[in-house]
Design goal:
mainly alpha
Length: 184
C-alpha cells in the first residue's frame, strides 16, 4: 500500500511532536525533583530547553545569564533571585512551550485536511497565539527581574556575552545595549 504525501507529512510532524514531548518530560523530571539542581544539572536541562526556543518570540535569557554568572559578576543576591524565579516559573514555561509546539504541529497537519474550514484554522491559530502571549508574559517577568537588578557593568558584560552567543549574536546589530538599558 502506498502512502500519500499528507500521511507522510502527518507522520513526520507527529514524530517530531512525540520526540519533543519525551524531551520535555525528561527535562521536567530533572527539574521537579525534591533537591535543587546543581549548576551542571541545570546546564544540562537548559541545553535541552533551547530546543524549545522556537516556541516563542522572545529569547530565553536566564540560562545565558546563569551560565555566565562569573563573567557577569553576579552577586549572591542576584543569583538567588534568578534561581527563585526559575523555580517558580520554569515548569509552567516549559509546559507552555510544549503546548505551543504541539498545537503548531497539530495546526500544520489539520491545515492539510480538506474537511477543516478556514474559520476553524483561524480559531486554532488564536489558541496558539494565546499560548504565545502566556509564554511572553512569563519571559517578561524574567526580563523585568534582569532589567531591575543588572548594574551598568553587568549590562556591558552582558552585551559582550550576547555577541559571543550563537543564538543571540544576530540580535546585536539591531540592539544598542548602552541606549536600551534602564537607569538605576
Amino acid at each position: 500500500m502506498q502512502t500519500t504525501h499528507l500521511e507522510n507529512t502527518t507522520m513526520k510532524y507527529l514524530g517530531i511532536f512525540i520526540a519533543l514531548f519525551f524531551l520535555v518530560t525528561a527535562v521536567q523530571a530533572s527539574h521537579n525533583s525534591d533537591h535543587p539542581l546543581s549548576s551542571d544539572d541545570w546546564n544540562g536541562v537548559m541545553e535541552k530547553v533551547t530546543l524549545l526556543e522556537g516556541a516563542g518570540l522572545m529569547p530565553t535569557l536566564l540560562p545565558v545569564i546563569l551560565s555566565n554568572r562569573d563573567a557577569l559578576q553576579l552577586t549572591d543576591e542576584q543569583v538567588n533571585a534568578f534561581r527563585a524565579w526559575r523555580k517558580n516559573n520554569y515548569t509552567r514555561m516549559v509546559d507552555v512551550m510544549n503546548d505551543i509546539i504541539g498545537k503548531t504541529v497539530e495546526f500544520r497537519v489539520d491545515s492539510l485536511r480538506p474537511g477543516i474550514t478556514g474559520d476553524q484554522l483561524l480559531a486554532f491559530q488564536s489558541e496558539i497565539q494565546a499560548l504565545q502571549i502566556e509564554l511572553l508574559k512569563i519571559k517578561l517577568s524574567c526580563r523585568e527581574l534582569i532589567m531591575t537588578t543588572f548594574t551598568d557593568e553587568q549590562w556591558d558584560n552582558f552585551a559582550f556575552i550576547i555577541s559571543d552567543n550563537p543564538r543571540l549574536a544576530s540580535l546585536m546589530p539591531q540592539m544598542d545595549v548602552k541606549e536600551s538599558k534602564p537607569v538605576n
